[in-house]
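I'll show a typical protein example:
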Amino acid sequence: MNIVPVLLVKNEEVWIRHIVTALANVFPHIIVSDTGSIDATIEEVSQIPQVSLFKFNDLSPHKLTGCRQFMQDEAKRSFGASHIFLVDGDELYPTKYLRYIADNPMPEDALSGFTTGIEVGELENGELWFYGHQGELVKFNRQTIIPVTSRWKGDYPFESPDSHIPGHPRNHYFLTPAGLHGFYHLHHTKRSQHDREVYLRDHKKNQFSMRDAPEIVPEKFWLKSRSDYRDE
């Protein structure tokens, strides 16, 4: 299985270097498509040698779906990928978990691979916390490993590949090994000084706003600040 991570980004300067650097520790090739960033996203990504960067102007929701297809086709054409690893600009995968994924490939006939993530919230003072509810971490599955034979359909943010069939017995789920977390979903954190200029970002944040989030449990404290993140 030859996996190439692909990212569709816009105005992600706060976290993007951490996200892509972790991927680069495990995967030799990464494709990033920037759709009109006006912050430091391109500068941050350009410093990572494993990245093939493509730049687009602001794209309509329909064209964002086409960009997913473009990256998938490019991964196959340029790097001989059998699968793409779909990563968003608000998904931070620790290197140890990425190595677990790479060392434990899903079956060749699997439709899609799913990883396990946990929500991260940001308080007004900048501290970052796991979302907790009654003492338990909030976990969810994210479709990420997709065969390059897939065809994309629908419009952003509801686009999906035809290999995505929820609940199908041929879906594969990457467990979270003991002592590790899966990816950190940074949906409720600042990603850029220009968050408001990204299509639906404020809307999506408000959909699961901090005031409506499950109880934040102090003993689940993660980081005091973004700069405290260290990968291995």
